[in-house]
Amino acid sequence: MGVKDKVKKLKNRATIEEDVGGTMLKSREKASEHMQQLQSLQEKDPEFYQFLKEHDKELLEFNDDDIDEDVETDMDDEEMQGDQQPDTHDMEHLAITAEKEEKSYKNVITSAMVDSWCNSIRENAKLGAVRSLMKAFRTACHYGDDGEDESSKKFSIMSSSVFNKIMLFVLSEMDGILRGLLKLPPSGGKKETIIDLMSTKQWKNYNHLVKSYLGNALHVLNQMTDTEMISFTLRRLRYSSIFLAAFPSLLRKYIKVGLHFWGTGGGALPVVSFLFIRDLCIRLGSDCIDECFKGLYKAYVLNCQFVNATKLQHIQFLGNCVTELLGVDLFAAYQHAFVFIRQLAMILREALNMKTKEVFRKVYEWKYMNCLELWTGAICAYGSEADFRPLTYPLTQIISGVAHLVPTARYFPLRLRCARMLNRIAASTGTFIPVSLLLLDMLEMKELNRPPTGGVGKAVDLRTVLKVSKPTLKTRAFQEACVFSVVEELTEHLAQWSYSVAFLELSFIPVVRLRNFCKSTKVERFRREMRQLIRQIEANSEFTNAKRMSVSFLPNDPAAASFLEDEKKSGASPLSQYVATLRQRAQQRNESLMESSVLVGEHSSVFGSKTPENDEDDDARDEEGAAVFSSSWLPGSGSETKHPKEEKTKKKKKRRKEQQEEAALDEDVVEDLILSSDEDGFMSDTPSAGEDVEAEPVPQKQQSKRQKPSAELPKKKAQFHAKKSKKRKRAN
């Protein structure tokens, strides 16, 4: 207590004493009057006075000293109440906190409690222990939630080791426990099994345990950030996916989560997520297969909008997953494939009718081309099936239309991609597609007949570009890549029909046009390449003619299908042997391009490296789970923890941005205006968004000016124009 407080208290006490003194004088006067009245009462009515003496003796023994004592005690009581009021408040606060601590201590789950529950479940299969463990599992999954009322919770988890122990046991053992309670087989099952089970007494007694397990596991999946932890959780939930047939709302949420992890996860997570989705489609059928088809295709389209050397493998993996899922139900897959291929056809029809740059860009972009690649893979996988074979012709027409839409040399990579897709369709379905015309038209373009004037140039990976810049067309590296790719695809096309009885007639026109290219080209190495191909075609013609001279059937005879069947199985034709060497050369070239490119996000395209070979191996499963759930992570804390290194790097990036902005503000305004005036010419020479083009590097200052123009620019422009107008007036 300070000096000022003491002074105030003394002043208050003095005023109280003055008031008390005045009241004491008044009370004494009243008391004397009251004594006189009692004495007169004794004289006037002695009987009544005797009655009061017997029954109310205190009233007659009234005295002045009692008044003084009462006033003083009242004053002391008021002072004591004023001094003790904050102490009682503190005591109440301490009592409340002590009560909360006592409650929380009672609700804490210890490692010994979890061990006792687990042992009783393993040894005696006690239902009470299962229920207690499921309550603890719910608390573990909802740990750290903002809207959770702690007073209503029966348990609370205080350590990460207890959380890890609960998660590991429940995810590893709960599927078997629930199947034992519901009297189901230890693994597998179909939707009909759960539908029949829903009308039994066991389901009515234990369905809340199943829903609690699946619902809380879904909640903690959305909180997890570690890919290995998510992979293990999804792998264990995959065994219990059959129970989702009874909970449609949970099924939709699980499909959404699985699709998200499939499209965005790294490491082994995409593989595990796809297996989870595929298992749902196999076991539950029509309940989820349509939603999975649409969701998987949508996630694929979102992931394939941009392509580079490192993302190419990831996109191929996603396409293989979609193709694999289509095989689960080909009848339903045909309906979805028909709708999606029809969408691609409508976009191409609009481009052929409108013929504008904006419409062309909708076709000549990675999203459209990767969708064609996806359906090409689906036709190659299921083209022999009766349900899927009708889609072969429309898809072939779309790919041919895309290849001929803009027949310029800058789109050579796109045309080669289309030729490759047509070759794959022809090989898988056994149908003839005139791919050679598309490839030979490319060789006759003037850009490949002239000697390179742009120098050697940088190596071009034709798999990762759709369009190249004009300077790249004149480089030696681009011309070589195009000619070699044309030779490889043309050899693939001819090798498919190298065992046909009509190979001589089929190869006549390609040989004539290849000889014309040898005469017109001025590049010696291209001549050597074409002469080698011509020799192989002529050797294959002699190979088939020698066999054709000995046959007696007509060309329209069904026996023509068995022509050179044994040689085809052994790959004895000259073109089959030559195409094998060309494939090795192409593989070596692609590998060298991958090694020379910058491997950004390399680990994101590695799949299945951490998945166990046998999911049924209990020892491997336990070891993996113990390794995964061994960290100090808890739900609700993953997003808040940040490493100091990440914070430092973020600070450095902010400083660099600020420095670049300051440098952009200091640049001359006239220089900025010149850059902005050249934008139209720059955009006309560069390809559309999402394409990789080799261009000269732009300085950081100019980049910053293009991205973030200075805020003071309008004012400086106005001043600049004002000065110009003044000069003109003076001149006039």
From TrEMBL:
<dbReference type="GO" id="GO:0030691">
    <property type="term" value="C:Noc2p-Noc3p complex"/>
</dbReference>
<keyword id="KW-0539">Nucleus</keyword>
<dbReference type="GO" id="GO:0005730">
    <property type="term" value="C:nucleolus"/>
</dbReference>
<feature type="compositionally biased region" description="Basic and acidic residues">
    <location>
        <begin position="640"/>
        <end position="649"/>
    </location>
</feature>
<protein>
    <recommendedName>
        <fullName>Nucleolar complex protein 2</fullName>
    </recommendedName>
</protein>
<feature type="compositionally biased region" description="Acidic residues">
    <location>
        <begin position="661"/>
        <end position="682"/>
    </location>
</feature>
<dbReference type="InterPro" id="IPR005343">
    <property type="entry name" value="Noc2"/>
</dbReference>
<feature type="region of interest" description="Disordered">
    <location>
        <begin position="590"/>
        <end position="732"/>
    </location>
</feature>
<dbReference type="GO" id="GO:0005654">
    <property type="term" value="C:nucleoplasm"/>
</dbReference>
<comment type="similarity">
    <text>Belongs to the NOC2 family.</text>
</comment>
<dbReference type="GO" id="GO:0042273">
    <property type="term" value="P:ribosomal large subunit biogenesis"/>
</dbReference>
<feature type="compositionally biased region" description="Basic residues">
    <location>
        <begin position="716"/>
        <end position="732"/>
    </location>
</feature>
<dbReference type="GO" id="GO:0030690">
    <property type="term" value="C:Noc1p-Noc2p complex"/>
</dbReference>
<dbReference type="Pfam" id="PF03715">
    <property type="entry name" value="Noc2"/>
</dbReference>
